[in-house]
Specification:
The chain is α/β, with parallel strands linked by helices. Helix content is 40%, strand content 21%. It binds 1,4-dihydronicotinamide adenine dinucleotide and beta-alanine.
Amino acid sequence: MSELLTREQYQAIAASLTPAAMSFIDGGFRPALSGKTLPTVNPATGETLAELAACGREDVDLAVQNAREAFDDGRWHKQHPSARKQVLLELCRLIQREGHELAVLESLDSGKPIYDCETIDIPELIKVLTWHAETIDKLYDQTAPVGADAVAMVVREPIGVVGAVLPWNFPLLMLGWKIGPALAAGCSMVVKPAEQTSLTALRVAELAVEAGLPAGVLNIVTGTGVDVGEPLGMHMDVDMVSFTGSTVTGRRFLRYAADSNLKKVVLECGGKNPCIVLEDAENLDKVAEQVVAAAFWNMGENCSAGSRLIVHENIKDALLERVKAHAGEWRTGDPLDPANQLGALIDKGHFGKVESYLQLGKENGHQLLMGGDTLDGIYVQPTIFDGVRSGDRLAQEEIFGPVLSVITVSSYQEAIEVANDTDYGLAASVFTANGKRALRAAQAVRAGTVTVNCFGEGDITTPFGGYKQSGFGGRDNSIHAHDQYTELKTIWIDLSDDVAG
Ligand SMILES: NC(=O)C1=CN([C@@H]2O[C@H](COP(=O)(O)OP(=O)(O)OC[C@H]3O[C@@H](n4cnc5c(N)ncnc54)[C@H](O)[C@@H]3O)[C@@H](O)[C@H]2O)C=CC1
Ligand code: BAL
């Protein structure tokens, strides 16, 4: 992690930035073929940061054509594994070199607090890319047990041209979760960042070429979901799409694949994740700290946010006192002030959605324990509603804001039933002093990641993705992510007619 700077120093960096906002195709920046642009706005100030290339189908076609040529001539995947590893490690070094600038750009474009950009997004991006780079020259293929008269090799080959469609809540980190394993596997890529937050992906693509990644291997096409995401999903020459975003849009990619070339689709979608605090949970102060982080980290704009607190009635009051105390320490405001833990929501439209849930909670008679306020039409204070029942909208719908719904239960069994009473199944946390009970709960909750006595998403070594409507087709992170960007091939060699046998 780079050393934190002062607010004034971050403001000075912000003033010095001149971000590239065109698409990045075949190793260079270019405007949309139509010449159209769309503004990308700093949500905290409402100022336009840059005019983004508003690309369309023709730009997607061009990017895919370049990615396909790069893949077919093998300029990346046929390089020696150790050479490819060095390129990705060099990219990490350049990201580190540009760390403060990238962190400020990420904060300006997304409203995320600079503290998180510096301490989480940039270091985690480097960690993810490094981990996948290091796998390149350490993976072996297999031979199958087919007897003496044949040799059967089971080899992994890069899947080809990968489309990656990204969300706005972790622009750099989600870029890393996709390009790390896909480039390590040897694929070529066309990345479509969210239209709200494209600037850092463009800078990373530029750095990748500086690091030695051949032109055409990593292309970035900016624009809206309808104009860029859909043509990418429908493209006949894209072999796979990896998507992170809402379940509604994720579903569309399955239709695009069905209506085009049956490309492989991997989806990482929404969540309504439970923090389950059982009656015997110990150290309620630490539990409260974790519950607060789960609910309010990244302004709750997080697919794995612990937005439902399911707590046993016997410890509820003691826990909620501590939750309120910890949440009260989280400061909301200027994202470039490193003292703030909550920044701006992504845009006015999303702010309006979160505000409507604050209204809903108040109208439905839930008890507002804290927060419920907004600032400057873009910030939302950490908010806690008590007295929520499992079927209520506040307990069922992904709000994607700093809003925690408290559901009270009176038994372990009820806690598990409530935890599973959702269409989602991304993540869950269980707090208990009983180790066996913790394992039972981890087994019983239908979610891709279950953490015990802490909130978290695992790390780069552990797969991340969802059960039920939280995901489809694969996992981000770990060796499983690498594998999903490959095809399995069997090569069977008959030895039976060789006389020496
Ligand atoms: N799981 C997660 O990490 C995320 C969940 N969300 C959820 O989704 C809600 C809506 O946010 P959105 O920005 O609208 O998410 P979204 O899922 O629509 O956007 C994610 C990506 O998909 C693209 N996209 C949108 N419509 C598309 C289409 N018709 N075809 C192809 N690509 C398309 C977008 O341009 C963006 O790059 C949020 O309030 C939140 O609940 C949003 C972002 C991330
Ligand atoms: N928390 C990482 C994945 C996501 O929110 O989209």
